[in-house]
Amino acid sequence: MIQTETPKTSLLGNLTVQILIAMLLGAILGIYIHNNYDVSFAKEFSDKIKILATVLFVWFK
After folding, report:
1. What is the spatial distance between Cα 23 and Cα 31, in angstroms, rounded to a whole number?
2. Can you spell out the DSSP letters for 1-61?
3. Alpha carbon 1 to chain centroid distance?
4. For 3-61, what is each residue's pLDDT tens digit?
5. Which residue of 17, 30, 53, 61 has the lowest C-beta tally within 10 Å?
6. Buried/exposed 26-59: b ≥16 CB within 10 Å, e otherwise
7. Can you give the pLDDT at residue 42?
8. Per-residue pLDDT band at 1 (split at 50, 70, 90)
């Protein structure tokens, strides 16, 4: 009987896991900003975080 070993992959190497972690962190950050800051700061933060997401998307593309 021949045994073959499957290569072990890192959990963070899985794209699905990375997406789920990013979604969870985004939700936690959104709840934190909503509960702890006023509306004007939340709007300003929202505009800046959108720009950051666009830059990171283009950079890692």
Report:
1. 12
2. ----PPPP--GGG-HHHHHHHHHHHHHHHHHHHHHHS-HHHHHHHHHHHHHHHHHHHHHH-
3. 44
4. 777 777 777 788 899 889 989 999 999 999 999 999 999 999 988 888 888 888 787 76
5. 61
6. eeeeeeeeeeeeeeeeeeeeeeeeeeeeeeeeee
7. 93
8. low
